[in-house]
């Protein structure tokens, strides 16, 4: 499970991806996704320092993705956010996980950790944006993202 910060970052990046390359204001993302604006602002600045987003001040400014949503994986996001799920930590949480220091949980955790990492490397921000678009189109919840979303292959769905 990811931290709240990483979850908010994923939602924000999905929202930005849904804007189709147009700059989005942090205030707009925060309002649409019910994220505290000051908290989101710190997350966005961190993502900008890590090269996942580009921020521009002034008229016509806002936040855009630094590269296509299909090229930003959840793994990239987790690394940028220093998420424990991407770090080579022992299942017991006490040290670095390695074959040289094999705790009683090592065999189990090594396999599970690889599965989690593989999954995160396959899931993209485009997947998150597409999921939210489908969720909104089913009418089950209020919109979270902008009216434009893209699929994994980069095609647009529903404006």
Q: How much helix is in the residues?
A: 40-55%
Strand order of the largest sheet: 1-2
CATH class: Mainly Alpha
Give the distance, in angstroms, between the N- and C-terminal Cα atoms. Answer: 31 Å
Radius of gyration: 17 Å
Structural class: mainly alpha
Order of helices and strands: HHHEEHHHEE
| Average pLDDT, all residues | 83
| The CATH homology group name | Winged helix-like DNA-binding domain superfamily/Winged helix DNA-binding domain
Low-confidence stretches: 142-152, 155-159
Instruction: Figure out the total of helices.
Output: 6
Question: In CATH terms, what is the architecture?
Answer: Orthogonal Bundle
Strand fraction: 5-15%
Number of domains: 1
- Write down how many β-strands occur, each being a DSSP E stretch of 2 or more residues: 4
Q: What does the largest sheet look like?
A: 2 strands, antiparallel
Instruction: Using the coordinates shown, work out and report the CATH topology.
Output: Arc Repressor Mutant, subunit A
